[in-house]
Design goal:
Number of strands: 5
Strand content: 25-35%
Shape: globular
Structural class: alpha/beta
Order of helices and strands: EEEHEHHEH
Largest sheet: 5 strands, mixed
Oligomer: single chain
Strand order of the largest sheet: 3-2-1-4-5
């Protein structure tokens, strides 16, 4: 089984109310869809980076089995570069950047990194709002979460 996870975050203001979305597609080895699942959540006071990271974390946490082949599609270069490049320097430098500053959102990066240890994860950056169907679904889920968070603040 292969899983495609499309993830996205949305935020009104930075910080402000935000949401995250995950659209999961499980396929057999022939590429036939076995299952689809949509997940989303919200936070009344957050940042876009936190929502992007949260979406990726939620995608990996949703997997019931270990060693599943998963491809995570995200329009966040922050997430892709962070988990495939920067994190190794952060680990070597005790969670400090090359400029000796503490890594922002460290606890989320640690959680995401730990989730990748028992999974076969491929990270793919996709251009946002470019008509990639899975990314568009993840975006609409993230926006739904953001709108719910905004509405809660208004009431």
């Amino acid at each position: 089984m292969k899983v495609k996870a499309y993830t996205d975050g949305a935020c009104s203001g930075n910080p402000g109310p935000g949401g995250w979305g995950v659209y999961l597609v499980a396929e057999n080895n022939l590429g036939e869809i076995l299952k689809e699942e949509a997940l989303y959540g919200k936070n009344q006071e957050t940042t876009n980076q936190i929502m992007e990271l949260t979406a990726a974390i939620q995608a990996l946490e949703s997997l019931k089995r270990q060693n599943v082949e998963i491809t995570v599609f995200t329009d966040s270069k922050y997430v892709v570069d962070g988990i495939t490049k920067w994190i190794f320097g952060w680990l070597k430098n005790n969670w400090h950047t090359a400029s000796k500053k503490p890594v922002a959102n460290r606890s989320l990066w640690e959680e995401l990194f730990n989730l990748t240890k028992n999974q076969n994860v491929k990270w793919v950056w996709v251009k946002g709002h470019a008509g990639v169907p899975g990314n568009e679904k993840a975006d609409s889920l993230a926006v739904k979460g953001r709108e719910e968070a905004s509405n809660e603040l208004r009431s």
